[in-house]
Recover the amino acids of this structure.
């Protein structure tokens, strides 16, 4: 997830990496790595693209010329999460 952008549209822009087969992935500069312990990754991708999450990001993002968000603010986003089976169905 991007932690900085020159406009609010791209703050917290998510990306999903699949099939890395146990390889270690190191996030780059201005990137927040979110490693799920459980749940469906595709569900979370859609959650991070949802209008509700985008509105939250626009509200808590900070900065004047470069806008940003940090992991703590992403983590504080509140939503009711369905069980993993329903997440897979939704994803």
């Amino acid at each position: 997830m991007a932690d900085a952008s020159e406009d609010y549209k791209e703050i917290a822009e998510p990306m999903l990496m699949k099939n890395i087969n146990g390889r270690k992935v190191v996030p780059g500069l201005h990137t927040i790595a979110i490693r799920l312990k459980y749940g469906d990754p595709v569900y979370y991708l859609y959650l991070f693209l949802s209008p509700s999450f985008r509105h939250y990001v626009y509200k808590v993002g900070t900065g004047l010329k470069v806008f940003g968000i940090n992991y703590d603010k992403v983590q504080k986003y509140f939503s009711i999460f369905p069980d993993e089976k329903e997440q897979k169905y939704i994803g």
Strands lie at 4-5, 67-68. The radius of gyration is 14 Å. Helices lie at 41-49, 51-60, 71-75, 84-90. The chain is about 35% helix and 5% strand.
